[in-house]
Design a protein that fits this description.
Layout: E1 2-7, H1 13-21, E2 25-30, E3 35-37, E4 42-44, H2 47-54, E5 59-60, H3 68-76, E6 81-85, H4 93-96, E7 102-107, H5 119-125, E8 130-137, E9 147-154, H6 161-184, H7 217-226, E10 234-237, E11 240-250, E12 260-261, E13 275-278, E14 283-291, E15 297-298, H8 299-305
Parallel strand pairs: 1-2, 1-6, 2-5, 6-7
Antiparallel strand pairs: 3-4, 7-8, 8-9, 10-11, 11-14, 12-13, 13-14, 14-15
Helix pairs in contact: 1-6, 5-7
């Protein structure tokens, strides 16, 4: 089957690799344009663009894939199917109509839960015990297409968005390859989603990761995990940013939210814990953090490097 693959970040790579190694013909890879990244604002290709270039695949990087010019470029590739994995642009009907067999999307949630751009973030914030991957047929409504296949995985206490996406990218690639040939032959009848059960996880903004210490400790802990690797949960110490990279919720007596207090003697905490921050309910043991312009440190190292940190109120 002639396939145009559409994807951009690291999540897309396992699926693209599986397709390259399969019996299918990858006639083109559509990915996001090169963009400045990092402190030096060096122009970088997307991970999918890098892999496509390494493999000598036809590469398209339109700013808007839905323009007449972009549509003509995709149409000229004569794809039988579009395979999408975290491409990063909204697809309109003229594009979806190009491939005669249709389009499949590899989505990192158990749809209809967590439709949208940040499903792993949404699953962590909601305190889900599991998440998974859905292979779905693409329709105009956001992630609302019929379900071809699903596979669930448990969410571990130490999972972050980064670790979940890494796991789910591999699961999704494997699941797609299990069903692709049968779907192409029309042997799988995709099942409609129940829209009444739909939840949404929109794109994350930097300001979402500012810690609100009046929340309970479990909610703050979920946010710490959900915002790794980006934008990273952040608070302030005397106006200076402090990124919280790893933490653990504790039962603790009520106190003023955001206060740095010693670790209680009768409470177990993970290795590296240097101090505790009181929350609206409970407290958060800080096991790893990072000051502006500095390397990541354990909670113990942070405490030693912050004279007078104990007793301060964070975020005030």
């Amino acid at each position: 089957m002639r396939i145009v693959f559409m994807g951009s970040p690291a999540f897309a790579l396992p699926t693209l690799r599986e397709l390259i190694e399969s019996e299918h013909e990858i006639v083109g890879v559509v990915t996001q344009p090169d963009r400045p990244a990092g402190r030096g604002r060096t122009t970088r290709r997307s991970p999918a663009a890098e892999l496509a270039a390494e493999q000598g695949l036809r590469l398209l990087q339109p700013t808007n894939v839905n323009t007449a010019e972009s549509l003509e470029l995709v149409r000229a590739l004569e794809p039988e199917a579009l395979i999408i994995a975290a491409y990063g642009q909204i697809l309109k009907q003229p594009l979806l109509d190009i491939a005669k067999r249709g389009a499949l999307n590899v989505h990192a949630s158990l749809l209809p839960k967590h439709r949208g751009a940040a499903p792993s973030v949404g699953a962590l914030l909601a305190g889900e015990s599991e998440t998974g991957v859905t292979i779905q047929e693409v329709v105009l409504a956001l992630d609302a297409g019929p379900i071809v296949a699903q596979e669930a995985i448990p969410i571990a206490d130490d999972d972050t968005t980064g670790s979940l996406n890494e796991k789910l990218s591999e699961v999704g690639a494997g699941l797609l390859m299990k069903v692709l040939a049968s779907w192409a032959r029309g042997e799988i009848e995709a099942q409609p989603q129940d829209d009444a059960l739909a939840t949404y996880s929109p794109s994350v903004k930097r300001e979402d990761a500012v810690i609100d210490w009046t929340l309970n400790a479990v909610d703050v802990w979920r946010r710490v995990r959900a915002y790794v690797p980006w934008p990273v949960a952040t608070t302030t110490v005397g106006g200076e940013p402090l990124r919280i990279l790893d933490a653990w919720p504790l039962d603790a007596p009520r106190g003023t939210p955001g206060m740095v207090v010693p670790l209680p003697d009768d409470v177990g905490a993970p290795p590296g814990t240097g101090f505790v921050v009181t929350c609206g309910e409970g407290a958060l043991a800080i096991t790893r953090g990072q000051r502006a312009g500095k390397r990541p440190l354990s909670g113990e190292e942070l405490l030693r490097g912050y004279p007078g940190l104990m007793g301060k109120r964070l975020g005030g």
